[in-house]
Write a structure and sequence with these properties.
The complex is a heterotrimer. Chain A is an alpha/beta fold. Chain A contains ten helices and 13 strands. Chain A has helices at 62-70, 96-102, 124-136, 140-153, 159-163, 172-184, 202-219, 230-236, 254-259, 264-273; strands at residues 20-31, 37-47, 51-55, 77-80, 83-86, 89-90, 107-111, 190-194, 222-227, 239-244, 247-253, 321-322, 328-329. The longest helix of chain A has 18 residues, at 202-219. The radius of gyration of chain A is 20 Å and the shape is globular. Chain B has one domain (2-297): MetI-like (MetI-like fold, Orthogonal Bundle). Chain B has helices at residues 2-5, 8-26, 62-94, 100-115, 118-129, 133-160, 163-170, 175-211, 223-231, 242-264. In chain B, helix 3 packs parallel to helix 6 (133-160). By secondary structure, chain C is mostly helical. Helices cover 73% and strands 0% of the residues of chain C. The chains are: A alpha/beta, B mainly alpha, C mainly alpha. Chains in contact: A-C, B-C. Chain C: It is a multi-pass membrane protein.
């Protein structure tokens, strides 16, 4: 990997539009040694300029997936995959130094509760300038100038002032913008947003989503948008993966999945989000709770909560089947 | 509190302390030889027949001196802690009713006392009041009193606002009854913990004072005095200081273990003294592992 | 002797810690408190002399002092004035550096202290330096691999060192380093200004004996806060910016986790001074504690009062320095007032 220049990276260095920036094949994550896998057989690709949504309840494995992609597994968590590659760089077996070179340059991330991701005793400007200086080799005044530019580019009014603020002096929406500015400061190929809008109020949430969409367009970066809220993902993504109990249960273009969910769980999620076809008639709560990963049922994991479940559903593992339109679903209902 | 005393650690600690107390009371009578008798034929001998722990530079039996020295050391420490209890607990309870300015002054006075190093203050007290362990222990008691003042005040402050105390008062219980039944039950455990820690501190201070030759006349054996005389003969007997040190550390360690066991049994630590300038807690500043109230500055 | 209690983990915060944990609001407030404490301490120190029946004649002439001698010398030292007047002039002169004259030698007390204090300050300074170096190294090493063998070894060692009083450590060091290995002298002193190398030879063992307890405290505190801080989201955030582990640790985590350790360091100062009394005797150092001991033997009240007051002042100055350090580490407290007008998002 070449040393990433920050602002003036030649366009040729950016992934061509439509080329894969993240390839995940058969990702498996286990929590604790010898424990059952909390994430199984997760495969997807994010293309340059594309936005992919990862949706599921808490415990569905979306954050574990996200952390595996970022190389930040929690202690005791083991991740393995057949392929895990970022814009041509193999992430499997990447050492600490390799991750260091990727993070802050080709790989950016924003999270829920942005304030907690900033060091409370340093100004935001200093935290924004730090990767610019470390990765881009910018001088102090250059880094400051660039940092102010970045703060301006994420829609912060009066970026000069914001630059010198401490995190506790900014609002949640502003903090998320700052984090986004930091995440895109190295001109990443992939931006991972893990519940990035969850704690924000609706107006700010929409603004942040707009900002992410604009950055994706301007910079041609791939976006992996992780959320429990299908309403957030539905508007902001091109492709959608629905996770349930560590497995992909549905995978397809967002528009068609939202219009015609193939998996009962997706349908239920849409109903909860107030989007699905049956919204008015169905009570928007999914009964029951996700199974504990330690006790996998032999068949469909959603069966105990599913309105369409038949005895066949719990006999054998349900494969992820690809339909004629290229959509994938892990359900016996349609077949 | 009784539950705490049933724990194995507490039992071991109590057993050690009981043994030390027994030594302190019987002390000299248990000594196989006269702790002052000099045997010029057997100077600086190692442990052996007749002298289980050897002899010192005057040929005196080390075991006998150790046993005889226990009593004065323990008694002095108890004197200091007794003084501290007297000076600390009752004002601590009373301070709950102090007005805000008076509380502020009282707390600054406590700060002032806690700024003074124990040993130096004890030396000063001996200097102006006359050379004696009683004078030194009185001074030490004054410096230890803030510990009791603080823990009592903290416990009583928390209680002052507790609803069950209010309820008891509403039901017509007298001030004294409330104090006795409710406050004591709350305050006693923390006072017990502090007492154990203060005793440990006092024992170490006594050891350093007697080491410096303060409060005792030279031939009389004390733990610290033995250390001081051993220090001159390290070349001949490098192991000698280990004997009094072991006894000191054993006693101090047992007291600390006991204090920990007592505190572990408590459901909650006493509420921090809000003080006049209590600011919102800052998670960054709040130390996770904090030093104890009862730190030693001997 | 310094802290000898095995400090139990994570329970009641010490009152000093709590005071520091309250994050000093402003230096002015801290200063006001320190001045009050100093005034109260001076009352106490003066009161110690006032309640004693010691007088200059008895101190100098002993049993042979006649009532006439006593009256004459009392008048000479101003002891026949009312107490409040004595206190006023004593404190008034003391804050200007004049601590009166020794009853025994009639030398200015300030001069004797000025001669002795550098011994303690230089050794305490070295001890603090050693404590910070040893404590931080051990604390950081343990925190980087929590639960590892190294971590457990550090924790066990800290507990042991926290239990051993300084005089035990001092005797152990003399036995090992001076008597057995014959590497360093077991006592004596050369001023730092005269010959730094010789000074170091004499100062190293006493400083080490004094520092180990503080080092243990710092290591333990730093380990706990570092382990906590490394789990914080902002540490993950810094990692996500592609910063090296070293940079995350030293540039971010250490900065935020240092507060409690700085407090422990500040608390060590009175302990260092308290511990100095015995270590000075063991290592035969001409410091302030030896001065105080000699004065106590001679019932030389002005010297006793002077040493106490100077000690209190040193401790208070150290506490102030710690408070100022905590304030510098905590921008939230420093800039809280500016919070009102944040720039808005577009």
């Amino acid at each position: 990997m070449t040393t990433a220049s920050v602002s003036d990276r030649p366009l040729s260095d950016r992934p061509a539009p439509g080329s894969p920036v993240l390839e995940v094949e058969n990702l498996r994550v286990s929590v604790g040694r010898g424990a059952a896998e909390a994430v199984r057989e997760v495969s997807f690709t994010v293309l340059a300029g594309q936005s992919v949504g990862l949706v599921g309840e808490s415990g569905s494995g979306k954050t574990l997936t996200c952390r595996a992609v970022l190389g930040l597994p929690a202690p005791g968590v083991e991740a393995a995959a057949d392929t895990l590659a970022l814009a041509g760089t193999d992430l499997l077996g990447l050492d600490g130094r390799g991750w260091q070179r990727l993070r802050g340059t080709r790989l950016g991330a924003v999270f829920q509760d942005p304030g907690s991701f900033l060091n409370p005793s340093l100004t935001v400007g200093r935290q924004l300038a730090e990767p610019l200086r470390v990765h881009g080799g910018l001088s102090r005044p250059d880094a400051r100038r660039r940092a102010v530019e970045l703060l301006d580019s994420v829609g912060l009014r009066d970026p000069e002032t914001v630059h010198d603020r401490y995190p506790h002096e900014l609002s949640g929406g502003m903090l998320q913008r700052v984090l986004i500015a930091i995440a895109v400061s190295g001109d990443p190929a992939l931006l991972v947003a893990d519940e990035a809008t969850t704690a924000l109020d609706t107006v700010v949430q929409a603004e942040v989503l707009d900002l992410l969409a604009r950055l994706r367009e301007e910079r041609g970066l791939g976006l992996l948008l992780v959320s429990h809220d299908l309403a957030v993902v539905a508007d902001a993504t091109d492709r959608l993966l629905v996770l349930y109990a560590g497995e992909v249960v549905e995978d397809g273009p967002t528009a068609s999945v939202v219009a015609a969910p193939a998996h009962p769980y997706t349908e239920a999620l849409l109903a909860v989000a107030g989007l699905g076809p049956g919204t008015r008639t169905r009570f928007p709560v999914i009964p029951g709770r996700p199974p504990a990963p330690a006790t996998p049922a032999p068949g469909c994991r959603f069966a105990p909560r599913c309105a369409y479940a038949t005895p066949d559903c719990t006999l054998a593992p349900i494969p992820l089947t690809t339909g004629p339109d290229g959509r994938k679903v892990r359900c016996l209902k349609g077949s | 509190m009784s539950a705490a005393l049933r724990r194995p650690v507490a039992r071991v600690a109590l057993a050690v302390l009981a043994a030390v107390l027994l030594l302190a009371v019987l002390g000299g009578r248990l000594a196989p030889l006269d702790p002052l008798a000099q045997d010029t034929a057997h100077l600086l001998r190692g442990p052996g027949a007749g002298h289980p722990l050897g002899t010192d530079y005057l040929g005196r039996d080390v075991l006998s001196r150790l046993l005889a020295g226990t009593g004065p050391s323990v008694a002095a420490a108890a004197e200091a802690v007794g003084t501290a209890l007297l000076l600390g607990v009752l004002p601590g309870l009373a301070s709950v009713r102090f007005s805000a300015p008076l509380s502020w002054v009282a707390l600054r006075a406590v700060d002032a006392l806690m700024t003074l190093p124990f040993t130096l203050f004890a030396i000063a007290a001996v200097g102006v009041l006359g050379n004696g362990l009683h004078q030194a222990m009185l001074a030490l008691g004054v410096l230890l009193a803030p510990l009791f003042f603080r823990v009592t005040r903290a416990a009583a402050l928390g209680l002052d606002r507790a609803q069950y105390v209010e309820a008891a008062e509403l039901m017509g219980a007298g001030r004294f009854t409330v104090l006795r039944t409710h406050v004591w039950r709350k305050v006693l455990p923390t006072v017990a913990v502090t007492t154990a820690h203060a005793l440990a501190t006092a024992l170490l201070t006594v050891a350093s004072l007697t080491f410096l030759g303060i409060g005792v006349q030279p031939p009389a054996p004390t733990w610290g005095g033995m250390l001081a005389s051993d220090l001159g003969f390290l070349a001949q007997q490098p192991w000698a200081p280990a004997v009094p040190t072991a006894l000191i550390m054993l006693t101090v360690g047992a007291l600390n273990l006991l204090a920990d066991a007592l505190r572990d049994a408590e459901p909650a630590a006493p509420a921090p003294d809000p003080g006049p300038a209590a600011a919102a807690p800052d998670p960054l500043r709040e130390p996770e592992e904090a030093r104890d109230d009862h730190r030693v500055r001997v | 002797m310094s802290a000898a209690l095995p400090v139990p983990a994570g329970r009641t915060a010490g009152w000093l810690l709590r005071r520091a944990a309250r994050a000093p609001r402003s230096l002015g407030r801290v200063l006001a408190s320190a001045v009050t404490v100093f005034l109260l301490s001076s009352v106490l120190t003066f009161g110690l002399g006032a309640v004693s029946d010691a007088n200059p004649a008895a101190a100098v002439l002993g049993e042979t002092a006649t009532p006439a001698d006593i009256v004459r010398l009392n008048h000479e030292f101003g002891l026949d004035r009312p107490l409040w007047a004595q206190f006023g002039s004593w404190l008034g002169h003391a804050v200007q550096g004049d601590l009166g004259r020794s009853w025994f030698t009639t030398l200015p007390v300030g001069d004797s202290i000025a001669a002795a204090l550098p011994v303690d300050l230089s050794i305490a300074g070295l001890a603090l330096l050693l404590a910070v170096l040893l404590g931080s190294a051990a604390g950081i090493a343990a925190a980087l691999r929590p639960g590892s063998r190294l971590d457990r070894a550090v924790t066990a060692l800290c507990t042991l060192l926290g239990t051993l009083p300084a005089f035990v450590v001092a005797i152990g060091l003399i036995t090992l380093v001076s008597v057995q290995l014959q590497l360093l002298p077991s006592g004596g002193y050369v001023p730092l200004g005269q010959d730094p190398v010789q000074w170091l030879r004499f100062a190293l063992l006493p400083a080490l004996a004094l520092s180990l307890d503080a080092a243990a405290g710092i290591a333990r505190q730093l380990r706990t806060s570092l382990v906590g801080a490394l789990r914080e989201n902002w540490a993950t955030g810094a990692t996500m910016r592609g910063l090296s582990r070293r940079r995350v640790l030293f540039g971010h985590v250490l900065r935020n986790a240092a507060g409690p350790a700085v407090t422990v360091l500040g608390m060590s100062v009175p302990m260092l001074i308290g511990g100095a009394v015995v270590t000075e005797r063991i290592f035969n150092l001409p410091g302030i504690a030896q001065l105080s001991l000699r004065a106590a033997e001679q019932h030389d009240v002005p010297v006793i009062q002077g040493t106490l007051l100077v000690t209190v002042a040193v401790v208070l100055v150290a506490n102030l320095a710690v408070d100022a350090g905590l304030l510098a580490l905590n921008p939230a407290a420093r800039r809280g007032a500016r919070r009102s007008a944040p720039a808005g998002a577009r």
